[in-house]
C-alpha cells in the first residue's frame, strides 16, 4: 500500500514537473554520472551485479525521454579508467552489459533515430565488448536524432594528457607552432571534438564529485545532484533536473 501510494505521488509530481518545463530551453547536451548501482543491490541483499543489470534498464527510459525532449547529446559514464580496479567478476559483468543492452535495444535505437557514439580508450576493451559497441556505432552512423555518447573506459585526465601529447608531438615535428595552441585547438584533440560542452551534468546516489569525468568540458555546465540511486532513476527525475536547470541563470563568468 505504501509503495502504491509513493508511486502515485511520484507520478503526480512528474506531471507537475512536466508543466514546468520550457521546451524552448532544453539543455542540448546532458551528461550523467550513473552512480549507486552497488548500493541499490546491497540495500536489497543482492550481489552488486544485480544493481548494474537494473541500472542498464534505466538507460533505455532516459534515452527515450531525452530524445522526446529534443536533447541533442546524452553522455553516459558507463565505465571509467579507474573501474578496472573492481573485482574481476564485476568488471567482466560490466563488460557484457553493452552487448546485452545493444542486442535488445539497437532496433529501438534505430527506430528512434539515435546515433551511438563512444568516448574512451575503446581499443583496450575486451574484443566482445569492442565489437558490440563498434557495430552499434556503425549501424547508427547515419541517424540524425539524439547522439548517445557512451563513456567507456574513459578518464578525463588521460584524455587531456593524450591531447597534450599529440599537440606536443605536432610541435616537435614542426606541423604545428606553439603560437597556434589555444583552447579551440586543444578541444580538437579531445574525445568530444565534434560535440558541444554539456549544459547539464547529473550525478546520482548523493556523491558530490566529478570522479575524473569531463573535467575540461563541464567548466560552465550546471550541476544537478540527487540522492536517487541510478537503478531508481526515471523519466520524472530527468524532468526534474531539466526544470531545475531552467531556473538557473547561466552567466559564463559575466554579470
Ligand atoms: C556506478 O555504480 C556504476 C557503474 C560503475 C557502472 C554503470 C553502468 C551501468 C549503469 C550500465 C552500463 C550499461 C551500458 C549499456 C553501457 P557503483 O557500482 O559505483 O555503485 P556504488 O557506488 O553504490 O557501489
From TrEMBL:
One of its GO terms (biological process) is polyprenol biosynthetic process. It comes from the Bacteria. One of its GO terms (molecular function) is manganese ion binding. GO terms for cellular component: cytosol. Keywords: Magnesium, Metal-binding, Transferase. Its EC number is 2.5.1.-. It is an enzyme of class 2 (transferase). Mg(2+) binds at residues 35, 222. Substrate binds at residues 36-40, 48, 52, 80-82, 84, 86, 203, 209-211. Homodimer. PANTHER family: DEHYDRODOLICHYL DIPHOSPHATE SYNTHASE 2 (PTHR10291:SF0), DEHYDRODOLICHYL DIPHOSPHATE SYNTHASE FAMILY MEMBER (PTHR10291). Catalyzes the condensation of isopentenyl diphosphate (IPP) with allylic pyrophosphates generating different type of terpenoids. Belongs to the UPP synthase family. This is Isoprenyl transferase. It comes from Halalkalibacter krulwichiae.
Amino acid at each position: 500500500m505504501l509503495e502504491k501510494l509513493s508511486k502515485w505521488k511520484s507520478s503526480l509530481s512528474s506531471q507537475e514537473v512536466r508543466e514546468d518545463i520550457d521546451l524552448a530551453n532544453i539543455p542540448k547536451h546532458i551528461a550523467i554520472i550513473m552512480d549507486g548501482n552497488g548500493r541499490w543491490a546491497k540495500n536489497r541483499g543482492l550481489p552488486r551485479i544485480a544493481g548494474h543489470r537494473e541500472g542498464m534498464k534505466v538507460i533505455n527510459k532516459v534515452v527515450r525521454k531525452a530524445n522526446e525532449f529534443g536533447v541533442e547529446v546524452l553522455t553516459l559514464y558507463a565505465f571509467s579508467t579507474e573501474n578496472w580496479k573492481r573485482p574481476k567478476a564485476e568488471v567482466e559483468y560490466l563488460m557484457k552489459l553493452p552487448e546485452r543492452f545493444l542486442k535488445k535495444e539497437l532496433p529501438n535505437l534505430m527506430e528512434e533515430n539515435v546515433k551511438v557514439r563512444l568516448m574512451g580508450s575503446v581499443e583496450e576493451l575486451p574484443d566482445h565488448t569492442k565489437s558490440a559497441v563498434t557495430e552499434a556505432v556503425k549501424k547508427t552512423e547515419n541517424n540524425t536524432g539524439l547522439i548517445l555518447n557512451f563513456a567507456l573506459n574513459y578518464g578525463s585526465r588521460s584524455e587531456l594528457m593524450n591531447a597534450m601529447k599529440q599537440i606536443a608531438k605536432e610541435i616537435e615535428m614542426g606541423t604545428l607552432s606553439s603560437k597556434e595552441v589555444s583552447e579551440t585547438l586543444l578541444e580538437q584533440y579531445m574525445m568530444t571534438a565534434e560535440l558541444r560542452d554539456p549544459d547539464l551534468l547529473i550525478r546520482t546516489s548523493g556523491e558530490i564529485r566529478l570522479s575524473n569525468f569531463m573535467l575540461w568540458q563541464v567548466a560552465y555546465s550546471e550541476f544537478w545532484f540527487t540522492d536517487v540511486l541510478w537503478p531508481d532513476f526515471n523519466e520524472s527525475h530527468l524532468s526534474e533536473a531539466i526544470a531545475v536547470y531552467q531556473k538557473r541563470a547561466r552567466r559564463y563568468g559575466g554579470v
